[in-house]
Amino acid sequence: MQKRTIVALPGDGIGRVVLEETIRVLESAGFKADYVEGDIGWEFWKKEGNPLPDRTIALLEKHKIGLFGAITSKPKDAAAAELDPSLHDKGFIYSSPIVGLRQHFNLDICIRPCRTYKGNPLNFIRRGAGSSIEEPEVDVVIFRQNTEGLYGGVEWSNPPDLVYQGLKSHPKFMKNFGQVPKDELSISTRIFTKRATERILRAAFEYAKKYGYRSVTVCEKPNVIRETSGMMYKMAQEIQANDFPGIELWNTNIDAQMMWLTKNPENYGVIVAGNMFGDIVSDGFAGLIGGLGFACSANLGEEVSVFEPTHGSAPKYADYPVSIVNPIAMTESACMMLDHIGEAALAQKIRKAIASVIQEGKVRTYDMMKMAGRADVIEKGAASTREMADAIIAKL
Ligand code: NAI
Ligand code: MG
What is the mean pLDDT of residues 172-185? Predict the structure, then answer.
């Protein structure tokens, strides 16, 4: 095995502990790597006025692979108030460093798998016929376009004249908003490009083919959002017909999908969507397989890739003397990293270990025990973050 260098980006709050424990799991599984730590997050915002320092960008440029914990974000004004006094009034404006990473390295393909672990007490159950209870097995992989759409950042309140004139050239704008004073308008755009849309669609189809999924579902709203959603679905039809005839193409609307996901989640395979709908539908499916303690993700670009749990820094648990949070979402994200760099066998080994800890049911973090998250959960029998990692390591 070639020895790798991984950029470890612990970030803030519980990001630090879940990353540390995950690296222990990786090492115990036999993954050979050096870890260089990249500075990112709130501490660097406060000290330097930049939560994503250039030196961190340079590290990722050099080593290409990042393992990211989580960061703390706050609204603009709250962020400004916490800046070091020497940096006040110097024009620093806070923006999320993980969004910044996705934009800087064009990490446009986000993959969020949601898979049921047998024996997880957090698995979704539903009523079957009569008084029976069913526990459908979810095996869904969401492909979310990660850089464009509603999160592309092209937005205005009280838009500049040029924009306003452009909008006025649209008959629908004139009809619906033509009488609204300009300074009462807020506008967030939803821009899709052909290039990025094709990349996310192809990534979804290729994944379905490689891992034997029957269907790819485009989850948008093409009947209403005709231009962007419409373009995505039309391109999906072409790609499917030309290059993936063996895979079924399904089309669902995001709203209906959120209803169906509790009715028949086992029917879906690969799902692909734009940025915001992908965010929504992936949180929906994550809720069926255990929630934030289990939700992992990959952000893939052409050069650089960053792997992260979808949860945040959970500040209220950050300073507990013994950490109580579930490290599995982070460990699973590291498994996605292993898949990506050609270490799929190691990834499978770790997933098997996680599966067997869950199935056995002896070691469970507080979320798996359905406790409210408080420092006393350990006394009440919940496993700590470290104990969960130890249990996984023992199975390895
Ligand atoms: P959060 O994901 O940090 O926490 C929400 C709640 O989910 C926690 O209070 C806890 O009950 C539970 N939870 C989260 N991770 C868990 C784990 N590993 N095990 C068990 N339970 C877990 O979201 P919240 O509270 O909305 O945001 C906190 C901070 O994190 C904010 O500053 C927010 O901006 C930031 N954030 C950062 C993200 C990132 O780094 N990618 C993503 C989401 C939020
Ligand atoms: Mg989200």
Answer: 97
Per-residue pLDDT at 339 exceeds 80:
yes
CATH code of domain 124-152+193-288: 3.40.718.10
Strand partners, 156: 187
| Cα–Cα distance, 139 to 268 (Å, whole number) | 7
The atom number, within ligand 1, closest to the CA of 366 reads 20
Domain limits, the chain:
1-107+302-396, 124-152+193-288, 155-188
- Give the angle subtended at the CA of 138 by the CAs of 288 and 349, to the nearest 5°: 105
Residue 130 CB partners (closer than 8 Å, separation 6+): none
Q: Is there a shared CATH topology between the 1-107+302-396 domain and the 124-152+193-288 domain?
A: yes
Ramachandran region, residue 326 (left: φ > 0; alpha: ψ -120 to 50; beta: rest): beta
Return the pLDDT at 3.
Answer: 87
* Cβ burial, residue 342 (10 Å; 0-12/13-18/19+): exposed
Token digits of residue 137: 């097995």
Q: To the nearest whole number, what is the mean pLDDT of the chain? A: 97
Read off the pLDDT band of 76 (50, 70, 90).
confident
| Percent above pLDDT 70 for the chain | 100
- Architecture of the structural domain at 1-107+302-396: 3-Layer(aba) Sandwich (3.40)
User: Is 314 close to ligand 1, i.e. is its CB under 6 Å away?
Assistant: yes
Pocket probe for ligand 1: among 96, 144, 313, the residue whose CB has the most ligand atoms within 8 Å is 313
The answer to whether residues 389 and 323 touch, using CB atoms and an 8 Å cutoff, is no
Does pTM top 0.85 for this prediction? yes
Ligand nearest to the CA of 40: 1
CA-CA distance, 28 to 129, in Å (whole number)? 45
CB 273 within 8 A of CB 142: yes
Is the per-residue pLDDT at 1 higher than 70?
no
Residue 131: DSSP 8-state: T
